[in-house]
Amino acid sequence: MEDHLRAAAPAKRTTPSLSRLLERNRSHRAYDSSFIVREDQLRRIVDVATKVPSARNQQVLRFRMVLSDEKHKVLPHIRLGGALPELHLPRAGEEPNAFIVICSTVAVSHYVSVDLGIVAQSMLLQAVEIGLNGICIGAFDAKAVKQELSLPYDPVLVLAIGRGKDNIRLKPITEDDNHAYYREDDIHYVPKVRVEDLILK
Ligand SMILES: Cc1cc2nc3c(=O)[nH]c(=O)nc-3n(C[C@H](O)[C@H](O)[C@H](O)COP(=O)(O)O)c2cc1C
Q: Ligand 1: distance of its center to the CA of 82 in Å?
């Protein structure tokens, strides 16, 4: 393209930049209950598992999609907002209505945990890219969820997916500051250690 044409018609960015997705990818604990997550949306999110790294490429993780019709099988067994117990999150009427239950076909090892982190974050980023939000949930009753969903493998992490309602802001901190997330005037603050303190010298 000639230079003067390029200036007149700048390339349109269709997807947000990675740094924008990372910023928007906050852990939501309140969801718009009028928005029902569809199967094709969960499937698109799970599909990232076909594109991510895996230790020894063993790909031992499996994914159970849970839509609104089955949410009652997961909801009673998750714990949200452990650092803010007085809020009893999620509030009634703001519960997520879709989940991805991640299972491992083998006993959890260091490598399985690394695979899990990679796939979970990739899935959450994909959710954000399609206008949804989510959260990783490690505090859940694995035995109950396995039984309720008749899973062949042990669940190791649950992702809630939906249209998030929380107003969340990142707050830069030093490594010595308190890391606990907190709320003020209905804004959820997430302290993040500044990059100067993360880099080892
Ligand atoms: C492996 C893992 C497990 C988590 N488990 C829970 C959980 O059980 N309940 C919860 O409310 N949040 C859970 N979280 C969310 C964290 O609290 C959240 O990532 C942290 O507060 C930082 O907020 P951010 O995700 O918006 O950066 C988990 C996050 C990760 C990565």
A: 9
Ligand 1 site, residue 61, Cβ cutoff 6 A? no
Q: Rounded to a whole number, what is the largest CA-CA distance in the chain?
A: 64
118 C-beta closer than 6 A to ligand 1: no
3-class SS shares of the chain: helix, strand, coil, % to 5: 35, 25, 40
Top-tier CATH class for 167-201: mainly beta
pLDDT band at 10 (very low <50, low <70, confident <90, very high): low
Q: Would you list the domain boundaries of the chain?
A: 17-165, 167-201
The pTM of this model reads 0.94
Which CATH number describes the domain made up of 17-165? 3.40.109.10
Mutational pocket test of ligand 1: of 137, 187, 192, the residue with most ligand atoms within 8 Å of the beta carbon: 137
- Smallest CA-to-CA distance from 192 within 163, 169, 166 is with 169
